[in-house]
Amino acid sequence: MSAALVLLSGLVGLAIGSFLNVVVWRVPRGESVVHPPSACPRCGHAIRGRDNVPVLSWLVLRGRCRDCGEPISPRYPLVELGTGVLFALTAWWTGPEWVLPALLYLVAISVALALIDIDTHRLPNAIVLPSYPVAVVLLALASWNPTGDADWQALVRALIGGAVLYAVYFVTVLVYPAGMGFGDVKLAGVLGLYLGWFGWGALALGWFAAFVLGGVYAVALLARGRAGRKSAIPFGPWMLLGAAFGIVAGEPLWTWYLGSI
């Protein structure tokens, strides 16, 4: 069952990754993600169905448009493959649990938001704001757990975690507005829902890890002369990575820390 779940999740992730390529390109431009159909940005020819198979089509076409022969960025198959791998790893980590749909949704928006933030230094409301109700519904399903014992305390903790992390980032922006934007604040609320659902340790370490990872990256850029003190560095990807760390390792590390003192 678990192997089949991992394989199925990976295949779904490949398809979702193909869609995320569209999201990453169109959402920052305010375009619809469903119409018109995907087309080559250079020659304008619509992409045929057989040329839209994740990863495989890019390999068959040798990374070039069938119509005009212009190169197709390798980022497209990498996003598809990366999303497939992340979906598979998530299914492997959770197993057949009701929290899996919630985490797969988080993985999908994380890929899209990280790439958009790197490209444009923005975290679009079109993705972040709908994630609040979606996350609450999916985490409520996980708390209900139709095939096992319900855990409504986890849902209450999620709601508190979302409010707390939103408030912490909101205060941070007020105190140091040059450090981050309100897009980060809105994303913090979504991540707080997930981190709170997994536990207070996950919430604390997920928040802390984001600043550690972002700080290390900023220092590395400064040391290599690739950024200055006033350079704008997207913080969204580090928030997402920090949340992933908190979800996976936060509670065990928190329990170990409390036990050691």
Automatic annotation (TrEMBL):
Entry's localization field: Cell inner membrane; Cell membrane
Reactions that this protein is recorded to catalyse: Typically cleaves a -Gly-|-Phe- bond to release an N-terminal, basic peptide of 5-8 residues from type IV prepilin, and then N-methylates the new N-terminal amino group, the methyl donor being S-adenosyl-L-methionine
GO CC, one annotated term: plasma membrane
Major location (coarse): membrane
Gene3D superfamilies: 1.20.120.1220
GO molecular function ontology, one term from the record: methyltransferase activity
Domain Prepilin type IV endopeptidase peptidase: 105-219
Any one Gene Ontology BP term: methylation
InterPro entries: Peptidase_A24A_bac, Prepilin_IV_endopep_pep, Prepilin_pept_A24_N, Prepilin_peptidase/N-MTase
Protein's UniProt keywords contain Transferase: yes
Record's bilayer topology term: Multi-pass membrane protein
Keywords: Cell inner membrane, Cell membrane, Hydrolase, Membrane, Methyltransferase, Multifunctional enzyme, Protease, Transferase, Transmembrane, Transmembrane helix
A Pfam family that the UniProt record links to this protein: A24_N_bact
EC number(s) reported in the record: 2.1.1.-, 3.4.23.43
Residues annotated as domain Prepilin peptidase A24 N-terminal: 11-92
Transmembrane segments: 98-116, 123-142, 154-176, 206-223, 235-257
Function: Plays an essential role in type IV pili and type II pseudopili formation by proteolytically removing the leader sequence from substrate proteins and subsequently monomethylating the alpha-amino group of the newly exposed N-terminal phenylalanine.
PANTHER family on file: PREPILIN LEADER PEPTIDASE_N-METHYLTRANSFERASE-RELATED, TYPE 4 PREPILIN-LIKE PROTEINS LEADER PEPTIDE-PROCESSING ENZYME
Family: Belongs to the peptidase A24 family.
UniProt name for this protein: Prepilin leader peptidase/N-methyltransferase
Organism in which the protein naturally occurs: Cellulomonas gelida
Lineage of the species this protein comes from: Bacteria, Bacillati, Actinomycetota, Actinomycetes, Micrococcales
